[in-house]
Write a structure and sequence with these properties.
The complex is a heterodimer of chains A (about 160) and B (about 250).
Chain A: H1 3-31, E1 32-43, E2 46-57, E3 60-70, E4 77-90, E5 93-105, H2 108-117, H3 120-123, E6 128-136, E7 140-144, E8 149-153
Antiparallel strand pairs in A: 1-2, 1-8, 2-3, 3-4, 4-5, 5-6, 6-7, 7-8
Chain B: H1 5-17, E1 22-23, H2 24-31, H3 41-56, E2 66-69, E3 73-76, H4 87-91, H5 95-99, H6 110-118, H7 125-155, E4 168-174, E5 177-182, H8 191-196, E6 206-211, E7 217-223, E8 235-242
Parallel strand pairs in B: 5-6
Antiparallel strand pairs in B: 1-3, 2-3, 4-5, 6-7, 7-8
Classes of the chains: A alpha+beta (about 160), B alpha+beta (about 250).
Chain lengths: ~160, ~250
C-alpha cells in the first residue's frame, strides 16, 4: 500500500470515528440524565412531602418516589413508589408517558395520597406530559411545561441530596 | 526458472541496484547477513554461477546478463531493461516479449516484487510483519483519536435552546440563602416559608423561585452554585403546593 493511500485511509477512519462517536455521545446525553425533586404539600397542619429521583435511561424512565406524610397527629407514614414511563423526544420537546406504578411500602390510603400529589405523568396510566428541554451550562437541563419546571443533570449521578 | 534462496536474493540485489555495480561485501550483507563473517567469497561465485545457469534456461543469449567486474563485484548488463511485471502478466508472455527481441524484459521477477512489498527492508519477512503491526497500531490510534475528539465535542456542545438565566433577578438574602426571583413572579418569600419547606441553605444556598399565574404550583431550584451559562451547579427542584391538593 502506498504511503499516501495509508495516510488517506487513516484520516478517513479518524473522521468517521469522530462523527460516529459525536452522534452517539450526543444522543446518549440527550436521553440519559437524572432529576431530583422534592415535592411538598402544606395544608394547614398537614405536611406531605416526597422526594422523586427520576432516571431517564434511553427510551425509558424510572422514578423512585420516597414519601412521608405527616399530619401532626399520627406517626409519619413512609411510603415508596416505583414508577416507570416511556420517553419520546423530538428535538427539544419530550413526551413522558406513564406505563406502570408499583407500591413497595406504605398503606393504600397513603399511597393514594402520594399518587395524588405526584405529577400525573408519573402516576396516571397512559397519561402524557410534554416538556421542553433547555440547556443550563454544560451539565444541566431545565425542563419546563409552562406551569412547572424541573432541573436535571446530564450525569446519572448528579445529586445534592 | 527455479532458484534457491541465496541465488534469488543475489538476483534481487542485482535488480535493485541495476545498472550499478554491486560489491562483494554488499552481497554478503544482503544475502547472508548472519553468516557473512564465516562465508568464503567462493560461495558468492558459486551462487552467481547458478544464477547464470538459471538465466540461460531462457536462452543462451541470457548468459551475459550478469557481468563480472574483477575484484569488485557484479552488475546486470545494461543492454537489458528491467521492468516490474504483475504476476498475472508473467504467466502468459506479453506481445512485447515477441516484438522486441533485442531488449527483452527479464522474465519472472518474483524477487523484485517481494522487494517492492518489503520496501527497503533487508531482513525480509520480519519487516513485512512489522509493517502490518505499524499499520494496525496507526489505524487503532486514529480510531481512538477520532472517538475522543468526537466525544469531547459532543460533551461540550449544547443541543437545545439555552435557559435564559436573565429571567431571574436577585432580590435578597434570607439567612444563608441568596434568593433570585423569576421576573414574572410576584412571590415574596419569607424565612418562615423556607423553613416550612425544609430547604437547607447550607448545602444549597442559591434559590431560584418561580410561581405561575394559572397554577397552584411553585418551584424552587435549590443549587449549590449560581445558575450561569458557564456554571455547572447541582440543583434539586422543590415543587410546592401550598394549601391546595393537586
Amino acid at each position: 500500500m502506498k504511503k499516501t493511500t495509508a495516510i488517506g485511509l487513516f484520516l478517513l477512519s479518524s473522521i468517521l470515528a469522530a462523527i460516529i462517536s459525536y452522534f452517539y455521545v450526543r444522543n446518549y446525553n440527550m436521553t440519559h440524565f437524572s432529576c431530583s425533586s422534592l415535592n411538598v404539600v402544606i395544608d394547614g397542619s398537614k405536611r406531605s412531602s416526597f422526594r422523586s429521583d427520576v432516571i431517564f435511561d434511553g427510551g425509558k424512565g424510572i422514578a423512585t418516589l420516597d414519601g412521608i406524610i405527616e399530619d401532626g397527629k399520627s406517626l409519619p407514614q413512609p411510603l415508596r413508589l416505583i414508577v416507570t414511563f416511556k420517553i419520546n423526544h423530538n428535538q427539544s420537546i419530550y413526551t413522558f408517558t406513564h406505563t406502570s406504578t408499583e407500591a413497595l411500602s406504605g398503606s393504600e390510603s397513603s399511597t393514594k395520597q402520594l399518587t395524588g400529589m405526584s405529577p400525573r405523568y408519573l402516576t396516571v396510566q397512559a397519561n402524557e406530559l410534554k416538556m421542553t428541554r433547555l440547556s443550563q451550562g454544560q451539565k444541566g437541563y431545565i425542563f419546563t411545561s409552562g406551569t412547572n419546571m424541573m432541573y436535571c443533570g446530564k450525569s446519572l449521578s448528579d445529586d445534592v441530596g | 526458472m527455479t532458484l534457491n534462496s541465496p541465488v534469488s536474493h543475489c538476483l534481487e540485489l542485482l535488480l535493485n541496484e541495476y545498472p550499478r555495480l554491486v560489491r562483494h561485501s554488499d552481497f554478503f550483507d544482503f544475502v547472508w547477513p548472519d553468516a557473512k563473517d564465516v562465508l568464503l567469497s567462493n560461495a558468492l561465485y558459486q551462487n552467481i554461477s547458478l544464477l547464470r545457469k538459471g538465466l540461460k534456461t531462457f536462452g543462451d543469449s541470457y548468459g551475459d546478463m550478469v557481468i563480472t567486474v574483477p575484484r569488485q563485484g557484479f552488475k546486470l548488463n545494461a543492454k537489458y531493461s528491467v521492468e516490474i511485471i504483475e504476476k498475472k502478466d508473467t504467466d502468459t508472455p506479453s506481445e512485447t516479449d515477441n516484438t522486441e527481441p533485442h531488449r527483452p524484459p527479464l522474465p519472472s521477477i518474483e524477487a523484485e516484487k517481494a522487494s517492492a512489498e518489503r520496501g527497503s527492508g533487508i531482513k525480509g519477512i520480519p519487516v513485512v510483519k512489522n509493517h502490518y503491526l505499524v499499520f494496525f497500531l496507526a489505524f487503532t490510534l486514529c480510531i481512538t483519536l477520532g472517538t475522543l475528539i468526537g466525544s469531547y465535542i459532543a460533551n461540550n456542545t449544547t443541543y437545545s435552546p439555552p435557559f435564559e438565566t436573565e429571567h431571574f433577578k436577585y432580590t435578597s438574602t434570607l439567612g444563608k440563602c441568596t434568593l433570585y426571583l423569576n421576573r414574572k413572579s410576584q412571590w415574596i418569600a419569607s424565612q418562615e416559608e423556607l423553613e416550612r419547606y425544609k430547604i437547607n441553605c447550607d448545602t444549597t444556598p442559591y434559590l431560584y423561585l418561580s410561581d405561575y399565574e394559572y397554577s397552584v404550583i411553585k418551584n424552587i431550584f435549590a443549587c449549590n452554585a449560581p445558575l450561569t451559562p458557564s456554571s455547572t451547579p447541582a440543583c434539586v427542584t422543590y415543587e410546592l403546593f401550598n394549601g391546595v391538593e393537586k
